[in-house]
Amino acid sequence: MNVQELMHSIGIQARDAAVVMARASTVQKNQALEAIAEQLLADTATLQAANEKDLSAGKSRGLDAALLDRLALTPTRIAAMAEGLRQIASLPDPVGEITDLCTRPSGIQVGKMRVPLGVIGIIYESRPNVTADAAALCLKSGNAAILRGGSEAIHSNQAIAQCVRVGLESQGLPATAVQVLETTDRAAVGELLKMKAFVDVIVPRGGKGLIERVSNEARVPVIKHLDGICHVYIDDQADMDKAVAVAYNAKTQRYGTCNTMETLLVAEGIAAQILPMLAERYLQAEVELRGCDKARTIVPAMTTATEEDWATEYLAPILSIKVVSDMDAAMSHIRHYSSQHTEAIITENWTRARRFLNEVDSSSVMINASTRFADGFEYGLGAEIGISTDKIHARGPVGLEGLTSQKFIVLGDGHIRL
Amino acid sequence: MNVQELMHSIGIQARDAAVVMARASTVQKNQALEAIAEQLLADTATLQAANEKDLSAGKSRGLDAALLDRLALTPTRIAAMAEGLRQIASLPDPVGEITDLCTRPSGIQVGKMRVPLGVIGIIYESRPNVTADAAALCLKSGNAAILRGGSEAIHSNQAIAQCVRVGLESQGLPATAVQVLETTDRAAVGELLKMKAFVDVIVPRGGKGLIERVSNEARVPVIKHLDGICHVYIDDQADMDKAVAVAYNAKTQRYGTCNTMETLLVAEGIAAQILPMLAERYLQAEVELRGCDKARTIVPAMTTATEEDWATEYLAPILSIKVVSDMDAAMSHIRHYSSQHTEAIITENWTRARRFLNEVDSSSVMINASTRFADGFEYGLGAEIGISTDKIHARGPVGLEGLTSQKFIVLGDGHIRL
Questions:
Q1: Measured between CB atoms, does B382 come within 8 Å of chain A?
Q2: DSSP state of A403
Q3: Which GO terms of the molecular function aspect are on file (chains A, B) (predicted)?
């Protein structure tokens, strides 16, 4: 079987499994999640042995320490995976929810019913826990999944896949509802991205290179996020304490996350007052500061920010700072450089807060809150498959609901159209 | 300027206009729609003169009578266009709606705000009224639009575009919020389909050839519907009167629409009773019947349905009829041949009705109602830009809401993440 035939046969199996998954009951799906969790715990030794193969292959390929750490499956991490599955089991089932049911003048009742998307393809890198996590989200939302992990985690992923299959079958669900590709052939990804007949949506999770490839090659719809170039704008009517707290938190609470602030915009009227206070805290935390000329006049301990800085997601203890004349200038900078992930304003001014909230076109827009809150758990989605910076279908953190769609339902009593 | 440069400059203007449209007030948008309506009526003579150029070009190109009729702009049709704009003005504004606002354990308030998509590209054929209609839907939903009509209607479309521009500018809105392409170069469409930076979604409206081309070439998300192969399944526990009324209405109320039934599935247990009654009515209405062997045994006045028939959207007074053993067989036929547009069951059986509603994976699923109800107006959307048979973003009739997205909003008081 060549790669195309292989992928088509996987696609057909996924399509068939999706029909079964769509009508699986909530209890059945939750019990399957619980069974998978138990299997992962029972198979801890097997998982570690498989992981050991990946780790030693990684070492001999010269992977760096950070990558090897991400790849490692310890008993603690396996327990955390199992706990993640149980948390997903405890979330409300989105499937079958009926909303907006109303009676029309013709006499028919019209409403919307939430339904699974069908088959979801997920392409990801490194961390093997994504295999369990992504499988669980697809399962709970009544979808079938085709998962393609990184080749460096192939043995770990296959061992986890085996636990998923055992759990599914223990509840009478098809093992093919979650298929983890065994081939490491890159052509398999190319095929997956083009199988419109078998795949309803692709979710890439990983570095920018992966996401750009998927986005450019896919003929199937994609839920993705490319960059997280998030901004905080401190207005001249900001509360100083709130502004310092939020701007500090948004940068330093974690450096490597997509909702971390990368550029701080400060209104000219407050810059001389607030920048020295903020700079002191950032420098204590060893954050490198890169500023515009005005910012550097106020805080000389900054290097000069270049055009490239405004367009960079550092994912590191580096912050670019720009002094702007007012909120309109801030919004204009955001329009130009933002990746439409998350932006926040700090202000006590009612009208400006409302304008910022209405006019900034990002997946999350915040008033007086840290950009670090842009996260499925913090928003109450319970779990997230990713954060979308697209506008179609799902925007911002994508939870179970983002893996579903709504169909119209019409209830009648022999109604005909006149 | 070559086509690529031209399209990029149109894209940049649309992007800029979208920023203004997104913050336009409901009153401003409604008054612009009213101004466009008035301008269309005032320019009736100009519109007819432009239309005359298209009609005579069409005649000399040998367009058939049906196409020429669709192309014609009469004073009645111009008045209907103006009335359509006023109806869209009277619909609720979807933009700015805030839902699901709740307070999280962290103290932040999280909700969703409905926002325009940005720039919408619409590619359509023949009927010039689509120019006004599509422009109005985009305008009301706070979007900018790039419209590309058929070359056979170029003069009519440009005359309508002029009215749209006058109306927009009269309310201080940018004329570039609705750009109707003046070029008939096919390469312009190719460019439009690839301009990810400037276009958020493409909506093709027209024949299957157009939609397939758009779907295959687009790198921008597409809201489309390809086929309307709709089914009615008459269960053996159906009420006979309701079954006859609905099955007759679903086929004969209009033949050329996408929500017209193309295949009738009848349970074996009721076929001998109901098929003769139904056939009599269909044959009176001069509907050609094509049946499976079992159906033909009951009603010999049918030709034999081929494999191709089950997969054909006739859009004509032709109906294929299949006798199936039970609802599961009907659902299996639907899974195989349906275009996932609209399917209906006729039954008095509670459990079967619920199963059909849950398990059939189409954009509209109906119980005891005619498929002809699958329509934006009948569903109370007020207007529709099309009917989507995709699952991502919008499914079924797409109204103003389908031209919007939701962003997350977070309201805090200096909240930081711990």
A1: no
A2: G
A3: glutamate-5-semialdehyde dehydrogenase activity; NADP binding
